[in-house]
Design goal:
The protein is of the alpha/beta class and 410 residues long. The protein has 15 helices and 15 strands. One of its GO terms (molecular function) is transferase activity.
């Protein structure tokens, strides 16, 4: 089969799928992208130049949609060049978030299209208004509705969709859900696996050394920001570190903003929280390490005595799935979609996102009870094996592609 993948980043959500398909010589895999990730053998990458986001002309509520339309035109132009060179895909697969797929049905009419639908914005029951520390101004409600412009165009267009959690699927209107297939995203369970032996010797990460007798608390997010509970985590640390002088903390994440807004006073959320908590933290035991390479992140998770995952009711992070596969003893927010993956006292200690004291107390429980930590670690690894097995995910993905293209097997 001939596959056309489209995503501004490379390989993004499709890393395992495109590698799986490209490993078979009977498939031709082309990927249109603006990303510069490492090459994948057998995948032909075709670059496009993203248009500049224009700050004038359109109302600022619809600039995102205007930008998406320009992206759609840029992708369509590249796709026409591929078509003129003789490439005719059997299926098109990509992410709807940035408008890149919106014009491809005109370039390749009748070709099945499988789009990734990640989140449908709303004013209730989701991220907006969840955190009272950051109230939504009344005038922003129209902006939130405008953010669904690409979603709505994609839902009204041809093709089907995939989404990774029930919560994310159910953010979409009822009339749209029949178009969406739930596919739990898999994890490489061989790479992300427990390694109990790592605690038998000092752990080294750059110039950071964690002695074998010390406790390690970990946290990971693409960016250190409120959507992923960074502010709640930081406020939990003073009492936790006072109670456990043998505890060290490694925080993995960059310092931009992926979701929400930057601090009102400028700077980064790290700077903001360190200023708020000045004099209350032992900074010699708190390590901001940025975003790590995969192998390093796996080792940090394997060494973790308590891993904290917090999120608004929003898109679920890959880092939670990876921590589950490693068998981290988990403290996690009792927010959707986390509740789909974890059960309190069975696979994790679930805590209120907005209560730092509860977060700290749950971490202390794990640090002080090896039996509890080992039980949760064992159970969450089993849960990952049942729900997140990569082979199972790829098989389900192939079955969906076969259904859409009328093939019996790929």
């Amino acid at each position: 089969m001939r596959f056309l993948f489209v995503h501004q980043s490379f390989p993004a959500q499709y890393a395992h799928m495109v590698a799986h398909l490209a490993s078979r010589p009977e498939h031709d895999v082309v990927f249109i992208t603006a990303g510069k990730g490492e090459d994948i053998p057998g995948v032909r990458r075709v670059m496009y130049r993203p248009p500049e986001l224009k700050r004038d002309g359109a109302h600022h509520f619809v600039r995102e949609f205007d930008h998406a339309i320009h992206r759609a035109e840029a992708i369509a132009s590249v796709a026409r060049s591929l078509k003129n060179l003789g490439f005719q895909p059997d299926i098109i697969i990509g992410h709807h978030g940035w408008g890149e797929l919106l014009n491809l049905d005109s370039v390749f009419p009748g070709v099945p299209l499988l789009g990734y639908f990640e989140f449908y914005y709303g004013l209730e029951g989701r991220d907006i208004g969840f955190d009272p520390e950051f109230p939504m101004p009344e005038e922003v409600s129209l902006l939130i509705r405008c953010k669904n412009a690409v979603n709505l165009q994609a839902l009204e267009g041809p093709g089907l969709g995939q989404t990774p959690t029930r919560f994310q699927r159910d953010t979409y209107p009822r009339w749209a859900r029949e178009k969406l297939t739930l596919l739990d995203e898999g994890v490489d369970l061989e790479q992300y696996r427990p390694d109990p032996s790592i605690r038998q010797r000092p752990f080294q990460l750059g110039d950071i050394t964690i002695a074998s007798y010390e406790k390690l608390v970990t946290y990971a997010a693409r960016n250190l920001e409120p959507y992923r509970g960074f502010h709640s985590l930081m406020r939990a640390l003073p009492a936790l570190m006072k109670a456990r002088p043998d505890c060290q903390v490694i925080l993995m994440g960059q310092e931009d903003v992926s979701y929400g807004l930057p601090p009102a006073g400028g700077g980064t959320w790290r700077q903001t929280m360190l200023k708020e908590l000045k004099g209350k933290l032992d900074l010699s035991r708190i390590h901001f390490v940025g975003w790590l390479e995969r192998e390093q992140m796996v080792r940090v998770l394997q060494r973790s005595d308590a891993h904290i995952y917090l999120t608004y009711p929003f898109v679920l992070s890959w880092s939670l799935r990876e921590a589950m596969a490693v068998g981290c003893p988990l403290v996690a927010s009792d927010t959707a979609p986390v509740q789909e993956y974890l059960t309190h006292e069975e696979t994790a200690l679930m805590v209120p996102f907005l209560k730092p004291e509860a977060i700290g107390e749950a971490v202390l429980r794990l640090l002080e009870s090896r039996s509890l930590a080992e039980r949760l670690s064992h159970n969450v690894r089993q849960r990952a094996e049942k729900l997140l097995d990569m082979k199972q995910y790829l098989a389900q993905y192939e079955a969906l592609v076969c259904r859409m293209t009328g093939r019996e097997v790929l």
